[in-house]
Write a structure and sequence with these properties.
49% helix, alpha/beta, 14 helices, 5-stranded parallel sheet, Torsin, two-stranded antiparallel ribbon, single chain
Length: 331
């Protein structure tokens, strides 16, 4: 691709040079302008840019992906599809979209972030407009809190200046230092512009295990009452979840102004996964690897997973996180 770009650039330059030697000065200016414009067109064709060719929301694609690739998350699927569809179809949103995804490991939080990116950006998670921050990697030292606050503000400001449709994913929010995330509050608030920059078309996604215990307890209560988990509604969890996260001293959202000022649009609960969901994950993983899905193999994989509580063995300890690697043993 780089070689093609070089060749085309040289071609444009050479053509323009020939034309410059042929025409009068006034015509030369026009020709150079055309050459430059053509060069920019070729560059934008070959390189990702902040325009509809590279950034376009595929609502149908996201709906299909959520239905066929995400299992056991009827609440999360519905919220995410509606939130993204409403936000991306609004040419003049009042504020950025802010989603906070919560649940135990392996329930699909990171996976959903990937599905969202895949259905907005042509390059998916590899897009230069998708930015992932991991607490232990990017903000490891508590003594550098003030430095991290400044850096984070500059990173977001710089990237949104570059593209208003930027997406920021903050992983491991439960491991982030309390107070750090508050440094970006102005960018998530109801401001038309800050220092001449609009943040209203950006997307912020927080991923956290915090609140997982509360979510699991509700799911377990439904299971013990012999109620279908699909009966669990957002109203059963959202208030409990936001309070749990807000008051969790080990969470990066502890006493954060983002919650206090209602800047998080949706707290999205990810339910713990049961045996049947693990089987579905294994079947999907086989299909993704180009293998013919085999129910017997999927059952073997699911049986090899640890479940909790120990006495009832209802939910997978690691959700579907290790399923793909376990398949190597059985296929």
């Amino acid at each position: 691709m780089k070689a093609a770009h070089l060749y085309l650039s040289l071609l444009v330059f050479s053509s323009a040079s020939v034309l410059v030697n042929t025409f009068e000065p006034i015509t030369t200016t026009v020709v150079l302008g055309i050459g430059a414009a053509l060069g920019r067109t070729i560059y934008n064709y070959l390189h990702e840019s902040c325009d509809p060719k590279w950034i376009a929301f595929n609502a149908t694609g996201l709906e299909v992906d959520l239905e066929s690739k995400l299992f056991g998350q009827h609440i999360g699927s519905r919220i995410i599809l509606k939130a993204l569809t409403g936000f991306m179809s609004n040419d003049n949103p009042k504020k950025p979209l802010v989603l906070s995804l919560h649940g135990h490991t392996g329930t699909g939080k990171n996976f959903v972030s990937k599905l969202i990116a895949d259905n907005i950006y042509k390059e998916g998670m590899d897009s230069s407009f998708v930015h992932v921050f991991t607490s232990e990697l990017h903000f490891p030292h508590s003594s550098k809190l003030d430095t991290y606050k400044s850096q984070l503000q500059q990173w977001i400001k710089g990237n949104v200046t570059n593209c208003e449709r930027s997406m920021f994913i903050f992983d491991e929010m439960d491991k982030m230092q309390p107070g750090l995330i508050d440094s970006i509050k102005p960018y998530l608030d109801y401001y038309d512009k800050l220092d001449g920059i609009s943040y209203r078309k950006a997307i912020f996604i927080f991923l956290s295990n915090a609140g997982g215990e509360s979510i699991t307890q509700i799911a377990l209560d439904f299971w013990r009452a012999a109620r279908d988990r699909e009966e669990i509604e957002l109203k059963d969890l959202e208030t409990l979840l936001s309070l749990s996260v807000f008051n969790n001293k080990n969470s990066g959202l502890w006493h954060t102004s983002l919650i206090d000022k209602n800047l998080v649009d949706f707290f999205v609960p990810f339910l713990p996964l049961e045996y049947r969901h693990v089987v579905q994950c294994a079947m999907a993983a086989m299909k993704a690897k180009g293998l013919r899905p085999d129910k017997n193999v999927a059952d073997q994989v699911a049986r090899d997973v640890n479940y909790f509580p120990k006495s009832e063995r209802v939910f997978s300890v690691k959700g579907c996180k290790t399923i793909e690697n376990k398949l190597h043993y059985y296929t």
